[in-house]
Amino acid sequence: MTFAKPHMLPYSFEDRTGSTTNSDFDDIYDRMFFHVMRQPGRSTTYIYEMPIRASHHRSLLPLNREPSVILEFLPDESLGNVTFVGKGHFTATTIPMVRYLRKTSLFGTSLTRKFVGSDGREYKWSHQSGEGQQWTCTTPENYLVAHYDLKPPNVKTLDVTGNTLTIYEPFAHLALELMASFIIMRHVAEHHL
Predict the structure, then answer these.
(1) Where does the DUF6593 domain lie (predicted)?
(2) Could you tell me which CATH number the domain at 11-190 has?
(3) In the chain, where the domains are located
(4) Is the Cβ–Cβ distance between 46 and 54 less than 8 Å?
């Protein structure tokens, strides 16, 4: 596997709860923040790009803003649609999740899927394919794009799960797409889809 250039600082997002339906992902260097939420009893998950570390300022940030991504799962939790909400002069784009995040082979595992990013390149998520990594995202040329690591059992944490999503700096422009596809992949694993 090929890594990003060593002088570039990756985005390391602390996963506050470890839940696929309610968590904050805060970059440890305060450069980027995401809030993932689902209203109780609903099957739609929302991803918000946040201007500040929402996990520490929840009372200051009522979520009266438009989400950046809407993940509409069906009532039985099977895959529905993903919508990237348009901003500025861009229009919203809705795609069936099975078309957006496709299995890599007809008979292969559903825990290895690929998607085409807004930059036109293909990216692949796979489960437990990298050493010590729960989830790994790579390019077809085997460049490491992102990975999700679980907290080592002997490490103590305060106020966080200790789980971390790392996105390498050359791919930071795809952070929202990587977050959306990552949440879908975790949902697929959680519900055995």
Answers:
(1) 21-187
(2) 2.40.160
(3) 11-190
(4) no
Q: Which residues of 8-46 are buried (b: 16+ CB within 10 A; e: fewer)?
A: eebbbbbbbeeebbebbbbbeeeebbbbbbbeeeebbbb
Residues facing residue 63 across a β-bridge? none
Helices H, strands E: what count in the chain?
2, 13
Convert the pLDDT of each residue in 163-178 to its tens digit. 999 999 999 999 999 9
Enter the pTM of the model.
0.89
- pLDDT for 60 equals 47
Burial degree of 113 (CB within 10 A; 0-12, 13-18, 19+): buried
Give residue 62's pLDDT: 52
Q: Which residues contact 82 (CB under 8 A, 6 or more apart)?
A: 69, 70, 71, 72, 94, 95, 96, 97, 100, 101, 180, 184
95, two tokens: 């795609």
